[in-house]
Amino acid sequence: MNFFARWRLRKSAPAADSVYVTERFGVRSLHIGSDTVQSAMRLARPNDLELAYTRSMMAFLLFRPPPRRVLMVGLGGGSLAKFVYHRMPDAVTEVIEVNRQVVAVARRLFELPAADARLVVRVCDAAEYVASDGDGFDAILIDGYDGESQVPELATEAFYGGCRRRLGRGGVLVVNLWGSDRRFDDYLARIEGAFPRSTLCLPAEKPGNVIVFGFRDPAAALRWDELERDARTLETRYSLEFGRFVHGLRRMNRWDAERLYISEQA
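The structure assignment produced for this chain is given below.
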């Protein structure tokens, strides 16, 4: 029995921290402790972002130049890490993952590159890492879920405040939340508390996920014509639906015919 077959057999009655892989219609999916898809890879395009919410997380590029230093919390199958690694050659990425099994599966079954000068995977506690002293990041991407829900330690105001302190000038926090989570409003309020008057929400293409952006520094209102111009450039560069992201920003934020307002003040 090969390695992949062994992981597929673990699908029945998963334990809370079990890791298993399924494959259907050319898409390989990672599950951790439940049938929820934590990560997915289309075998024909292993370095693309298969899931809508991961593509939506990259919308932070509308608000800042391509990052040089990126921190990711939660590896999954490594979709975001691979995308940055292959599409942003000037970026150095650190990934924090608490589960060694997840790292092993990402490398063996999801084509996560081996560690090198541009990609480091640390198996450690993300809350402790964020709270420690260290260099600033241009972007911090948080996808902190176990099998069923948001990991509590990765959804506190203290954690989000630590993320803000670890951001460099012009840095942005990107958090994946479930809009249907009964504590969604609490989590959003905590992010807003850590990033006062400098947050935006972007619903992903498919109902469910909401991406929240927190800006370290006060951000001015953005003109729609400038966002749409930048979206066209980014679509050409990264082959992601940035025009749709711009349209989606109208759904949960303050705006008028000319501008999108990031802060509470017009």
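Interim note for the steering committee: The chain has one domain: 47-261. Confidence is low (pLDDT under 50) at residues 1-14.
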